[in-house]
Amino acid sequence: MGLNEHLSDRAREDMELVHKAIAGDQYAYSLLMGRYKDSINYMLLKMVHNRDDADDLTIEAFGKAFLNLEKYTPDYAFSTWLFRIALNNAIDFIRKKKLHTLSLDDDNDESSKYAFSKMKTGALDPEEIVIKDQRALLMRTILDELNPKYKTLLELRYFDELSYDEIAEKLNMPLGTVKAQLFRARNFLYEILAERRGRI
User: Fold this and answer.
1) Average pLDDT for runs of 10 along the chain of length 200
2) Does domain 9-123 have CATH number 1.10.1740.10?
């Protein structure tokens, strides 16, 4: 079997796009994102059951993939690699969310004690520190490309980790306006990821 013959035709096409993207072809990034954005988002929505969280996690998955594109090897399809990144990111998100919603009333529940201890001290384990650093690197490098209005919203959402309700209250804006503007801000982020990846 020749080189990469274990891959499907589509997977080989993806691999060529990856090579072009690494070489600086911005259109290749757009094509890769266009191929998998909807299916990634659908998978994540099934996992987290919240449209806003799924949208956030989708853009994070592509951001992490594009940041680490040189690490992709054709041992398996690009789509497999991308979906694994998205899946792991979602699992981290769900784990963190559960940690903060565990009941703290059961003194015999060791996981609850651990959750309370972490919330009380604000401590992050090494894995969480890496995740937070990756998010910060991704967002900081592209936020300056955005209108200040969108930049503020994204900083509150991604760095301060505020809910949509909390952002609406903090900015004294209707919840619907916050959601609509964050939706537009995400679309701008997708464009920047696809068109200006060399700056990341």
Assistant:
1) 69 92 86 92 93 88 86 89 92 79 46 41 51 60 76 84 90 91 83 60
2) yes
Say if CB 54 and CB 184 are below 8 A apart.
no
pLDDT at 111: 42
Retrieve residue 174's tokens: 């209707």
How far apart (Å, rounded) are the C-alpha atoms in residues 85 and 17?
A: 18
Q: To 5 degrees, how large is the angle CA 59–CA 154–CA 83?
A: 15
Residue 173 phi, psi dihedral angles, 5° rounding: -125, 150
Confirm if 179 and 164 have CB atoms less than 8 A apart. Answer: yes
**pTM attached to this predicted model:** 0.69
Instruction: Identify the CATH class of 124-193.
Output: mainly alpha
